[in-house]
Write a structure and sequence with these properties.
Elements: H1 3-24, H2 35-44, H3 54-64, H4 74-104
Helix pairs in contact: 1-4, 2-3, 3-4
Amino acid sequence: MNYSKVNNIVGWICFLIATLTYVLTLEPSASFWDCGEFIASAFRMQVVHQPGAPLFLMIQRFFSIFAAGDLTKIAYWMNVGSAVSSGATILFLFWTITALAKKRC
């Protein structure tokens, strides 16, 4: 196998491990911090206090659709969306580090 294929496979494995870890440890409802504000804002597609959050709110709105109208499951599915987004961050961080390391060598 060549470097690119191994790099892609290992990156996706890191994504799966990180996402699984985050999903297994997520909170089933809103916590005491800003999560409640983001959950309410994403569900209604409203404006929050922090700039740069529109993409996050659109991703969260997508995951709120998986609740299928059950208002008690919206926070859970949005937390799953946060877990998947965090796993994707690990994936892209891995690929960035390996790209920089390969360029340096």
